[in-house]
Amino acid sequence: MMGQKLKITGWVAAGAVAGVLTTVSLQTVARGSLAPLPLEELQQLAAVFGMVKSDYVEPVDEKKLISDAISGMVAGLDPHSQYFDKKSFKEFREGTTGRFVGVGIEISQEDGLIKVVSPIEGSPAFRAGLKPNDLITKIDDTAVRGLSLNEAVKRMRGEANTKVLLTIFRKDESRTFPVTITREEIRTQSVRGKMIEPGYGWIRLSQFQERTVDDFVKKIDELYKEDPNLKGLVLDLRNDPGGLLDAAVAVSSAFLPENVTVVTTDGQLAESKSVYKAAPEFYQRRSGSDPLRSLPAALKTVPLVVLVNEGSASASEIVAGALQDHKRATIMGSQTFGKGSVQTVRPLGPDTGLKITTARYYTPSGTSIQAKGIVPNVLVDESAEGSPFAALRMREADLEKHLASGQGPEVKDPEREKARDEARKRLEEEAKKPPQDRKVPEFGTDKDFPLVQALNRLKGQPVLVSKTQVIVDNKEEKKEN
């Protein structure tokens, strides 16, 4: 059985890597059998290596040459296959476990400074009294202005039990003060949730990580304790770039009847031809029991709306596709990213590895998500004024060398190109406005337009449906649908 097989070969992952590029991966042990090698071409590779080493303008590090050759070979396949050197392998592992060493704050950029969005509960930053909207002006002796968000993150992360000095400007108290924080292992929060109003709950997954399923169960149990007669639930997967595949199967299973198909995969390897079902053996970890065992039975029937957008990818699309195909939920929002391929992560040594695309995945009805995504049942804009910049968001179909869906040829959509030109012009206009007029309302607030529409749907009230969204599709699939 595939579920049992996975327990032997490794763990199943679908982690977010480098912003919008996402993966669904299945980590396995390296295979013993290798294909026969093409000797003539390898001689050519060796000849180029020799020439570069002897003829290049200055000496080149041999290890770097080999590492670059591997990177180039793999990067030429598709946007999600990748060679992991020591540093990128560590970052990948941090992404899927949701654990890293740092101070424990979610941050964004504002007016050239770093803004605290929220401290992670129980983290060193939380204990040090940092608050949402605090501005970080210096990290140790380095002024923050001019640093990218990534550079700021790197400076705040480090070794456990080392100290970092943050200089904080707190606007509402008009004061600047230093805070020394000792770094420790942080576990990121990928689940948020609350009662939006009596009878209606909201639960948001920002990523599918190792702790997501346990945190999801805990949050659902809390909502049902607050109101045992929930009339409706919104599962918010907007901007969720993916995560662990077993977590996606578990979250889907929480809402679906037992043993129905959640997702299928297909590729060259025998282990790439799999069916994942809504049953514990397909998502529970090697040690431990069914993580969903404490969930209330009412969760299987509670009216459900799933919110998605162009930033919902990979594992998010598995959940949305499964709940849509089984008619368990109404999917609302905009067409998802379209990342429907599976990557296998294989170690090459103690601290390097290869992430390689090994399969496409399909929703229970057999539809490939690749380069197309999930089309919501109800298209809803980001705001009452529409989704002015949605067309500018990168989707799988926009990435260089992206894998085709395998279900018919792709055709460039002139409508989409036109929509992009219009969005660019609007963005230029928007950039002229003062920053406070440009802010998008925070998810989960009463100004969150798609969430308000989702609640209207659950209550049987009218929904403001998008009049402008263009569905990205190809001609072959239009005939089939």
TrEMBL record:
Its EC number is 3.4.21.102. One of its GO terms (biological process) is proteolysis. One of its GO terms (cellular component) is outer membrane-bounded periplasmic space. GO terms for molecular function: serine-type endopeptidase activity. Residues 89-171 form the PDZ domain. Pfam families: CtpB_N-like (PF22694), PDZ_6 (PF17820), Peptidase_S41 (PF03572). Residues 410-446 have a biased composition (Basic and acidic residues). PROSITE patterns: PDZ (PS50106). Keywords: Hydrolase, Protease, Serine protease. Residues 401-446 are annotated as: Disordered. SMART domains: PDZ (SM00228), TSPc (SM00245). Belongs to the peptidase S41A family. This is Carboxyl-terminal processing protease. It comes from Variovorax guangxiensis.
